[in-house]
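Annex B.
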Amino acid sequence: MVELAPGQRQVTDDLPQLLEILPGYLQATLRDHAQREDLLEVVLDLGRPPQARFVKGSEDLSQTPVSREDLEYCVQRVGQFSGDNRAGIERTLHRISAIRNRQGTIIGLTCRVGRAVFGTIGLIRDLVESEQSILLLGRPGVGKTTALREMARVLADDLHKRVVIIDTSNEIAGDGDIPHPALGRARRMQVARPELQHQMMIEAVENHMPQVIVIDEIGTELEALAARTIAERGVQLIGTAHGNRLENLIKNPTLADLVGGIQSVTLGDDEARRRGTQKSVLERKAPPTFPIAVEMLERERWVVHDNVADTVDQLLRGHTPNPQTRAVNENGEVVITQAPPETKKFEIKSVPLGSQWQDSHWRGSGHIVPLPPTQPARPEYEFASLLEQSETLPPLGPNGEELPIHIYPYAVSRHHLEQAINTLNLPIVVTKEIDTADVILTLRSHLKSQSKLRHLAHLHHIPIHTIKANSMAQIVRGLQHLLGLEEPSPADGVNLALFAPTGNDDEIEALEEARLAVEKIVIPKKQPVELLPRSASIRRIQHELIEHYRLTSQSFGEEPYRRLRIYPA
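R3H domain-containing nucleic acid-binding protein: predicted structure tokens.
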């Protein structure tokens, strides 16, 4: 392989092999198409015109709808479809994904063009050679898998490392038993079922003595744990994960361990005073599995966090990190820039009710601002007088308080609270400082036993609002009551996104099953219903949804067949 200069790229797409699986009239159209080099995928849906998607836009390839014969023609010319409904074309990188009906018959195909782009990692060649683990982040289609493939080749061929690729859907090395030549001398291990990916990661280390392991789409807690185990054995990891930015991983409880994990720590009085924060703060739990993270914003503009531990620490303390930005200029040269740290400015804004509420209010900054002795301890009066001089006044809450309302949670799940606020678009901001709060939200049981909390509330002249339990249903009711909003009846429907922590398909499907059971059978017919067996985490969110309808539910049966039973009121 010829050594390519930074910014110089060589593309191999094996496009003729992909065209050969398509019906004849589509082959002729695409073979002579002006945008053939920019083709991303061909979509064939039963009863609809075939569509080609390009880098810029899409277009119909024919006015004739796709027939079952067309789909069967394509299916017979590709490999076997696996459990994730993906297949490929042998010795190519193309991916064929199927859509099936309820009977399992294929009614749609997405034929994605797979390209091997040599020279794509010129932006981070120095990081690849550093022998440190690297995590790639970015939206779908930005080129994460392409970069992963090129990294494997460079490590195996140029740096002479023992590289093993864990290829779950044959997307990295292509379909068939022989890997695509773009991998060089890197070895590939295929995974029989996607849920076994974490086991294959451990098996690769134990059986094949790799120096580098390449893994695409780390998406479960078991895979994150396997990645940490591999890194602790001294093996370099190159992987991708779901999420556009590093902040997404910190907020994702499933994948947070990749960047060190998050834990709540109680500080001493002196340390809390020195930091200018409350006593309970979030801190990184362990060293990151991946010391380096790369955010692929565009194909030729990447943001590099060369010290993930430092970046995570800054984000948890409310600071703005200062990563590198690497891009390729018009001359094909790699340009590295590092912008100066941003400074936060306080702004006085009037936010209209019903808009997307953001933490732009002066009290939501998370910092205690010292005031001269002549000013009052709580400067709302001065702030209100400034607003009276402006042309517009901020909206007011049910008790005349200024919106957005700032809540200080005590023993209430901050994750549930922020999820409810963001999903329902409520004019509420969660604050870490009791000095900046308008109200304290806590559990009814804690208020009875916490005289210190009542003393703090009295000292700062802040009312206390209580909820019955630390569940999503109780938190939503408490926030609606706090804002003076009328609680919707079950007949008005429910936003399932409130009860899905990660929003994946399994959670939404389980919640939809419970919703239909309640609204179609339990409430109107007053009959109990048993749901399908689910995991413990899925059953927990189903219980919370049932509580929203003010019904009771119980889990029964033995694992893995344990399931929910819903009872009428």
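The two ends are 71 Å apart (CA to CA). The longest helix spans residues 505-525. Further annotation is deferred to the next reporting cycle.
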